[in-house]
Every structure is written in C-alpha cells, then in structure tokens.
Amino acid sequence: MKETVLIVEDEKDIAKMIDYNLKKEGYKTIIASDGEDAIDAAISKIPDLILLDLMLPGLGGLEVCKELKAERKTASIPVIMLTAKSQESDKIVGLELGADDYVTKPFSPRELVARIKAVLRRGKEKDKLPETIKIGNLTLDFSKIEVAIKDKPVELTSKEFELLKTLIKAKGRVLSRDYLLDNIWGFDHAIEIQTRTVDVHIRTLRKKLKTEAKRILTVKNYGYRFEYED
Length: 230
Ligand code: CA
Known about the structure:
Elements: E1 4-8, H1 12-24, E2 28-32, H2 35-45, E3 49-53, H3 61-70, E4 79-84, H4 88-96, E5 101-105, H5 109-127, E6 132-135, E7 138-141, E8 146-149, E9 152-154, H6 158-169, E10 175-176, H7 177-185, H8 195-209, E11 216-219, E12 223-226
Parallel strand pairs: 1-2, 1-3, 3-4, 4-5
Antiparallel strand pairs: 6-7, 7-8, 8-9, 10-12, 11-12
Helix pairs in contact: 1-5, 2-3, 6-7, 6-8, 7-8
Bound molecules: calcium ion.
Residues 10-11, 53, 55-56 line the site of calcium ion.
C-alpha cells in the first residue's frame, strides 16, 4: 500500500509540480492551500507524511506544525518543511516544534522524493514492533501471528489480526474507519466492502478478546483506538 502525502502549499504551480512528481512515484496525494485546510485534512485523512510550506497566507506553516504536533491524532505524522533560504531561523524553530526534516526551495523533484522516502523509512523503523508484545493479559507474537490472553491462544482471522496489529501500532492514535479500511482491506476492495466492515470485524475481535476487549475504544462517528493502559 503506497503512502499518502498531504501537500500544504499555496503556490499553485509548486503544489502541482510536487503533486505530479509524487503521483509518478506512486504516492497518493492530498493538496491543501492554506493552514486551516491543512489541519482539517490532516485530522480527517491522517496522511502518512505532510509536506508543509512555511510561507502560507493566514495561519503560517510553523503555527500549523505546532497545532499538528499538539493534536493527538496527528502528532506522530512526520512533517517535512518547505523553506526558503531566507528562513534559516524558521527552519530551526520548525525542527524544535517536531518537524522531521526540511527541504530548501528551490528543490528538484528528485531531491524531494528522496527526502520523503528517507523520512518514511525512518518512521517505519521507529514504528517497528518487537517480535512479541505483552499488554496487560494480552500477548501478541507478530512473527507467528499468534494472540493469547493469559497464555491461552485466541483464534483470530487474518483480518482480525491485522486490525489488532494496526491499532496497537498506532500507539494510542485514533484511526478512522477509512484509514483502517484502506490499510487492511486495501484500495482495491469491492464496493460492497464499506466502512461497516471495519465495525463488524471490530465486534468479532472484541468478542474474542474477552476481558481485553476494553482496550479497543470507539471514537464516535470516527474510528477506533487502542488503549495500552489498564
Ligand atoms: Ca508559500
């Protein structure tokens, strides 16, 4: 599954150029042309990465970065800032605010794509889960695809396992039904597979997890999140 990149850029030509080059590399893209739109899109779509121009009309890029990092749903999404040479100090502030990297304008598409790949790869390594994980009474073995509660094996279907793993990997972040559907069932899912599918699988998963079902929390009208704490 290719990642989704949110492009935040008010200059239409630059946004188009980035959009074209990312699509060519197989990424999915969303374009936002101001700060408010960027925050809305980030919260509703949960992209895998955000390319954030710092010079935006209205709410500036640094402000956007700060808000995204303060919001739990979006805090762990990597941000690459697009900066001008004259914005040296903003760049430092941005990195302090939690941005992952920056690219100085003018940049070549190749350079940008390389940077995106590197940041996404780093993120994946950081997200890598240990082979087994124990959360309360729940034990998961990711390599063997086994789940147990108090050492008693739980039989999950592959989709239920993927669902549980995806929720755990999100480290407490709320995942929307759309996100889960795209990531577990994939984009090629048939029309009849709708977001309700996610709810149905959550229901069966909860039933099988018994006492540990309390860890899968519903976020009304949005999606689900996994609770690590007892
Ligand atoms: Ca700009």
